[in-house]
UniProtKB/TrEMBL annotation:
Gene3D superfamilies: 1.25.40.180, 2.20.25.350, 3.30.30.170. GO terms for biological process: formation of cytoplasmic translation initiation complex. Keywords: GTP-binding, Initiation factor, Nucleotide-binding, Protein biosynthesis. This is Domain found in IF2B/IF5-domain-containing protein. It comes from Lentinula detonsa.
Amino acid sequence: MASAGIVNIRRDVDDKFYRYRMPLLTTKIEGKGNGIKTVIPNMADVARALSRPPTYPTKFFGCELGAQTSFDEKNERYIVNGAHDANRLRELLDGFIDKFVLCKSCKNPETELIILKQGRTEDIIRDCKACGERTGVDMRHKLTTFILKNPPVKIKKGKKKTGTGDAAAGVGGGGDSPDAEASPVENGAESDDELTKKIKAEAKDLNDDTTLTKEEWSADTSPEAVKQRIKALEGGLAGVSIANGEDEGSDDDANSPYSQLGKWVEESKDSHEGDTKAFLVAAYKKAEELGIEKKHKSVLVLAQALFTDDVLNEIPKYGALFAKTITSEKHQKALLGGIERLVGLSHPDLLPAVPKILMALYQLDLLEEEVVTQWGTHVSKKYTDKETSKKVRKASEPFLKWLEEADDDSDDDEQ
């Protein structure tokens, strides 16, 4: 299903590079008169991003609006009786997130609901995986009665052998289905064999014409040339303050050097009038200016700021900048993290193209075989939620299979 738009889980955080994101809630009015109702077509996807059962936010809406609700979980159909404006429900969703998702201590959404029993009393606790704090919810809210009657499903931690090692890596989250392990690549209509053939064929068309030599980097970064380019590219960004030299910036901090770099790149990439090399040099110079040109997180930010749904054409175009900034395994993992966010959160319709994206990066020597193989077999919540991480890795399987077969062929040739 195509994305209806992606927003920060905490909508008070105005930072495009904030790690925790969710689909924008959508609504559809059905029926007439007394039978009118509001269907929430993507409630399952929204709830998955929040690691909560979709019945919880739907019931929360009912409690807040004084309306009846109904669920058809098998068909992912969630309904609130009456006609309700999408913006009103989004505001209520913010309330649900604040009361039942965000850690009361650190405001991080990476929490799990647990029920603590003390005698006859039951309390609902938010167990934060980020700061370790356990904070209670307001037990006076009507939703708590529903949660106690329909407690969160306890995630089994048994090791289940799969092609991508998901279970061993601790795949989980509030909305995981036990059948999810064996599901085929989401949104992919082609078989692995067909896709692998396509990958090999299309890889031949990729080239590294935009590679910049050391001489070009140094020649283009002469003080006068760089000063002129940056002045032209920055445009209205002259007022942006330079970072204070701190090593890292929080995802939540809109003034961190990483957020500044991301915003600068996004606003400047279309203003270089076809001179891609000049733009790439200026972008690197900007990272230097902010003191983060060697940081792996800069690679993550560049991937998020540069790549769009046209990523397959953009990889060879911007490859030289990544070749310059990727200097370690950690940097490669950050690039893969950027791809996770691109296809998992911003453009879910790109999931079937993951093998081609990985092949394009591999052909430009931006990814090493060992790194991408290790990444592909270990689900992580470092860059996205685990459910999204699992989907992206599942989609990468044809490329991982191709790597493995290429390795086997190489071993046979050596014998």
